[in-house]
Amino acid sequence: MDDPRDRAEQLAARRREVLAQLREVEQELAALRRTREGVADDDEHDPDGVPLSAQWSRLEGLRLARAEALTGIDEAAQRLAEGTDGRCESCGGPIAPARLAARPEATTCIDCAR
Description:
By secondary structure, the protein is mostly helical. The protein is built from 4 helices and no strands.
């Protein structure tokens, strides 16, 4: 990926994707909050399925992961603007284009990531 415009578009597309995922998770959390209103906090013994607390925990984990991915994408866009994108922060070598295609926010080459 030699053209910075291609890389910028890749990051922008990934950002849109993560933002859509984040909105979806936040909508699910809002729906869960509405469900919990007026419900006793002890839902661990609900015979009808997954406890609300387990759903909350799962969704909150997804929300945090999406927020972290968004931060990583924004940092990659900043590195692109600074001209340091695509360089491993550990060894200084190039990050393979295939790795950047799979993980646009990657900061390390494959060898250093191991």
